Every structure is written in C-alpha cells, then in structure tokens.
Amino acid sequence: QVQLVESGGGLVQAGGSLRLSCAASGSIFSIKVMGWYRRVPGKQRELVARITSGGLTNYADSVKGRFTISRDNAKNTVYLQMNSLKPEDTAVYYCSVFTPVYDYWGQGTQVTVSS
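and the corresponding structure tokens:
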C-alpha cells in the first residue's frame, strides 16, 4: 500500500515563507516525476511545480522566482520552498508522484496566506 504524507502547511502572513514536505512510503518503483499541485474551491487543480528524477524542474508562471522544488530520490521525498507568499497562493496543496504504471496523490495540506 502506497501513502504520501504532506507536512508544513499552515497560516502565514503575506511576504512570509513556508516549506512543504512530502514523504512517499510503500512499494513504489521507477518514480519519474514528483510535484506539487494546488486547488481552490470552485477552480480546477493547477500545476505549481514539478521535478524529474534527473533534477529538471518547471514552474507555474505565477510562482516563478518565488517557489523552489527539490527532491531526495533516495528517500522518495519532495519539497517545496515557498517564499514571498501572497494571498493568491492560498489553496490546498497536493503532493504527486508519477510512475510509468500509476499516479499517486497525497491528501493535501492547507496553505493560508493572510493580508
């Protein structure tokens, strides 16, 4: 059984920082991509950042220059460093793990940025 556990969400003032972590456990093989998505009620889920096993990254335009994604392949863990947070970043953030045979998703962690 595979489980993704996110941590690091919470309430922060505009301009502050948070660091999200996601640890994958269970029988997971051949992880190709790990990433973070977010969703606001009434809107579709959107990509925040992704990283390949080789370290290549891509980001949503809205977070470029402010967020940084990284991973520890040996530990099957992905991180999202969020700086200069804005109220528009408020959302539920979901960890994702993609393999050639299946996609895995975490339960989500709430990030709230106050103005």
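(Above: one complete record from the training split.) The two ends are 40 Å apart (CA to CA).
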